[in-house]
Amino acid sequence: MGVFSKTCEYAIRAVFYISQRTHEGYKTGIKEIASNIDSPEPFLAKILQKLAKAGIVQSVKGPNGGFYIDIASFDRPLSDIVEAIDGAEIFTGCAMGLSFCSEVNPCPLHNDFKEVRNRITEMLHRTSISQFDEELIRGQLSLNK
Amino acid sequence: MGVFSKTCEYAIRAVFYISQRTHEGYKTGIKEIASNIDSPEPFLAKILQKLAKAGIVQSVKGPNGGFYIDIASFDRPLSDIVEAIDGAEIFTGCAMGLSFCSEVNPCPLHNDFKEVRNRITEMLHRTSISQFDEELIRGQLSLNK
DNA sequence: TAAATAAAAGACTTTTAAGTCTTTTATTTA
DNA sequence: TAAATAAAAGACTTAAAAGTCTTTTATTTA
Ligand code: FES
Ligand code: FES
Predict the structure, then answer these.
(1) Residue A81 belongs to a domain with what CATH number?
(2) Residue B126, Cβ neighbours under 10 Å: how many?
(3) Distance from A71 to chain B by nearest Cα, in Å?
(4) Which residue is nearest nucleotide C6, judged by alpha carbon to C1' distance?
(5) Does the residue B65 lie in any domain?
(6) What is the pLDDT tens value at each position of chain B, 145 positions in all?
(7) Domain around B30
(8) What atom of ligand 1 comes closest to residue A106's alpha carbon?
(9) Which partner for A78 in A127, A135, A140, B50 could form a disulfide, CB atoms 3.0-4.6 Å apart?
């Protein structure tokens, strides 16, 4: 089990890929996205629908249609994707599954785990959707395999 | 979704509870453990069987039987529990679900995520099963709710 | 040694996550 | 305006995680 659900992993990879393609001036169809991020095509379709409803990606139907990211969305943080797919638990939940994390009656791992959680939160808030476009275009970063 | 599976959360809570009770001089039955860590009793039974096979907890059947932790196991790190239940993925896996994490062809989150993963790994290696016994006995830490 | 106790074992069910398929709707272009 | 294209919608299936139940085995104690 990873830190994010499989669905969320596909979502993040897809959004990075779409951002890169938008940066290059293209709208991108599901088939191309799926093959470039190594995900099952119909499942990815479901995920992109959800992201489109959340306003994280944009889409147009018909010939020359596909998915893209509008200027306003380029700077959205990765945390928006994670929250839309997996919810907020990763930002607030207890390491050991207590129903809520608190300073007043903490679990044994609380002090260490809140640092971990903060790091994850910082990473996801600091990182933007379009942040890696150039490195992806240059082929220095990987979204598949 | 948390960082650990639900099964693993129960396992950690149970082991801390058994350690505390062993420290106080008792063997503890499943019913008592389940009610004190707020877990479903028959599911916990399965989990404890697995931990017993892994040598992380010890058990004796029959009257006055139950679960306890032998002296040699007190100092085992929490990572042994996590690895026995969830496997090693949390220590080595890629944030975005690439089939392996590497420096040579990293995903966009690699540099940030390896720090997160290192923190989790350190926390789990540094923390021992018996480390919180006294605070648990004093009621300063919580394993339920 | 019989009865009681408590974990081990394994088959089973339920729930959730992951993945697929078919039909509909919107858009473009010939 | 018809044909082609591509996403949206929703019903559906499969696989994995979570949880339950019943029977067996080991141990103790009366
Ligand atoms: S109470 Fe468990 S992490 Fe805060
Ligand atoms: S390659 Fe993704 S975390 Fe290392």
Answers:
(1) 1.10.10.10
(2) 12
(3) 21
(4) B62
(5) yes
(6) 789 999 999 999 999 999 999 999 999 999 999 999 999 999 999 999 999 999 999 999 999 999 999 999 999 999 999 999 999 999 999 999 999 999 999 999 999 999 999 999 999 999 999 999 999 999 999 999 8
(7) 6-137
(8) 1
(9) A127
Q: In this structure, are residues A29 and A39 in contact, taking their beta carbons and an 8 Å threshold?
A: no
pTM, rounded to two decimals: 0.95
Residue A78 falls inside a structural domain: yes
Asked if the structure places residue B97 within a domain, the reply is: yes
| Long-range interactions of B89-92: CB distance < 8 A, separation 24+ | B89/A1, B89/A2, B90/A1, B90/A2, B90/A3, B90/B3, B90/B4, B90/B117, B90/B120, B91/B117, B91/B120, B91/B121, B92/B117
- Say yes or no to pLDDT of A7 above 80: yes
Size of interface A-B (CB pairs under 8 A): 121
Given an 8 Å threshold on Cβ–Cβ distance, is B89 in contact with A13? no
Which ligand is in closest contact with the Cα of B144?
A: 1
The verdict on the CB of residue B106 being under 6 Å from ligand 2 is yes
Total tally of structural domains belonging to chain A? 1
| CB nearest A86 (choices: B1, B90, B108) | B1
B83 in any annotated domain: yes
Decide: A108 and A96 in contact? Cβ < 8 Å. yes
Nucleotides of D under 7 A from a protein CB: 4-11, 17-22, 25-29
Instruction: Compare all CA atoms of chain B with the CA of A121 and give the residue at the minimum distance.
Output: B116
